[in-house]
Every structure is written in structure tokens, then in C-alpha cells.
Amino acid sequence: MPEATQMKIEENTVAFNQTKKEAFTLSQHFTEIAKYLKSSWKVVVNKDDITNERLSIVKLFVISGPTEKFSAAEFNSIKKYLETGGSLLVLMGENGEAKYTTNINFLLEQFGVMVNSDTVLRTSYFKYYHPKEALIPNGVLNRGIAEVLEKMSISATQMDLSHKQALQFLYPYGASLNVAKPAVALLSTGSVAFPLNRPVCAVYKSLSPNGGTLAVVGSAAMFSDPYINKEDNFKIFEFLFKYLTEESVTLNSIDSEEPEIETYYQVPDIISLSSNLMSCLQESDELPQNVKNYFDQGLFCMDTRLVPKAIQKFMLTSFYVCSKILQIFITR
Fold first, then answer.
1. pLDDT digit string (tens) for 199-222?
2. Which of 35, 126, 172, 211 has the most beta carbons within 10 angstroms of its beta carbon?
3. What residues form DSSP beta bridges with 147?
4. Is 162 exposed, middle or buried (0-12, 13-18, 19+ CB in 10 A)?
5. CA separation for the pair 41, 164 (Å, rounded)
6. Is the peptide bond before 209 cis (omega within 30 degrees of 0)?
7. Is residue 309 part of a domain?
8. Environment class of residue 229 by beta-carbon count within 10 Å: exposed (0-12), middle (13-18) or buried (19+)?
9. Where does the record place the IFT52 GIFT domain (predicted)?
10. CA distance 237 to 226
11. In CATH, what number is assigned to the domain containing residue 212?
12. CB atoms within 10 A of CB 232
């Protein structure tokens, strides 16, 4: 792959950054994407410092799983790149910055997006049996995705009811996102993955005429070679690429204002709790419905019920003692 230093000023250039020891590289993990883009785009690799000059000559800049921190000068260059009409695609992975030891959230938070240090898990293992390979059948938050891809040819009323099921995608080894305005959530974990109904893909588009576009996905593996052709992952990448490179692609304004997402809930540390020995509390027996059963009159009482048994035992004991005495006298 050619490097960004060898590029000429072209409007159809896509650059994959490799200056931060990215966990996902173009030559090893995104060969399917490279084949798709090479038909009409020039795909290059940036192995030098991120500067204004290098960013100004690419249409789309991709950062996929950085494992090193960015400098303040690099952040300023990327921010200026977005302000002047550039497009940026950021791909992360499970556990976010805690695993990748980067500081990309410092940049993303300025646009209303943050990658959480968690992992998306499927609660029921269907079709893909690894819990981190989450198949999400109802995670589309904006019906504009289906409209752009022409996935659905149904009436507007039907689209209102089923746009969340328009696409199903495989979300492997990914993290959830926190999204706030001016960013917009596009995809969520749906109702079958944990955390429930939390964003996993978000976009930001500048309101200024010359502003750029940002897209953030919590799973870089989603578009890697082993997973991009599974389910509708390729269609989602196709939409994101069109949204980042074509100004005519828009989202549904109603869904953008009120996406169907829920509050982020955290669960206790199950591994830590399992190592602590805890005593269990026994539940009390159910109370009887009959009030008379509350009192047991047979616990303390004085009667003659045991007199016959006592006399019988006495007779047996007396006979045994007498027989022993007679036996002693006979032996003498």
C-alpha cells in the first residue's frame, strides 16, 4: 500500500492511519474493504505523523483501534480537518481505552461521543455461540439507513413499525458508546444484548456549510475480514461510507432527535463477589391459613395417656427382676 506522504491532492482518497500501532490494519484485517474501495477510490496507508498537510489531501481518514496516545498537536490537526470538511471514521473495540491504552475519547467527547470501557454481550447464544459475538436483530435506530440502502420497499406506516428490524448485524468484541448532542446514535445493542438498548454506532455532522463528518463504531472487528460478510455488516459499512463521503446522504430527523435508547446500568462485579463467602438467609415457612393451627396444645399438657404404657413397662421390668432373683437363689 502507498503511504500518505506519496499522495497527491485528490478528492477520492481514503487513508488508513497506522501511526499509533493500530490493532486493525488495512493489509491484515481490512482486505475485503480495500477490494470494495479500490474500484472507485484510492486507498492509502498513513505511517507518518498526523498533520494538517497530510489530512488536507484525503477525503476520509480512518483510525482503527489505536493502542498509543495522540499528542495535542495531532488532536488539533484532526479537529481542524473536521472543521474544514474532512471525514473521520473511528473504530474501537471491547473495553475501550482501558484495553487500547489510547486517549481517543478526548477528541470524541468534543463532538458528543465517548467509547465506554465495557463489552457488549449477547444474553442468549443464538447462531453465534461466543457471548461476545452478539447478533443484534433490532438495533437500527434511524430509518434513514434502510432508506439509503433501499433495503425496504414498504409503506411509510410499515416503516415506522419495523425500521428497527430493517437490518440485523453481528457485533463482535465491541464496546458500547455514550452519545450526546450534537452527535446522533445510529445503531444500538437492541433488546437481546447487554447493556440493553445502548448505542454502538454514532455520527456527527457539522452544521456549518464547510464542516465535516465523524462516525464512531465501538467494534473494529465488525468490519474486519472474518465478520464483514456476515449478516448485514457490509451493508452497514456501505451506509457509513456513503454518509461520510456523500453530502446527499441524510438521516431521519425525527429518529435523530429521539433515538430509542435506555439509561446505562452497571452490574456488580460477579467475579469479585463469587470469591467472597457469604452466609445464606433461610426463608421462613409459610403461615397457615387456619388460625387454630398457630397453637400446638400438645407441647405442654398433663393427662393419663401414657399411664397404660408405664404400667406395661413396669410389669415387664418387675418380671425381669424377679426372674433374676430366682435364678440367683437356684444357683446357690
1. 999 999 988 878 899 999 999 999
2. 172
3. none
4. middle
5. 31
6. no
7. no
8. exposed
9. 13-257
10. 14
11. 3.40.50.880
12. 18
